[in-house]
Amino acid sequence: MGEAKRRKELGLPPREKPVELKLPVLDKENIQKKVRSFLYKNPIVPFVFYGLVLGGFGWGLYNLVKGYQLIKS
What we know:
Layout: H1 3-10, H2 28-41, H3 45-72
């Protein structure tokens, strides 16, 4: 006897089928338009971003040299 018949005899509702989850489809052109319009409205953003990246590299290099000097002495 199958599961469906047993469930029916016991008065249980049919088993729910699992919902397959799919990744959302991204509209690349629409995203590019939104990013470009944001950057045209706020032209300082790339400079701030690159400044933060360079600052992070500088800070990491500083800590690396500082740590090396502690190990060396």
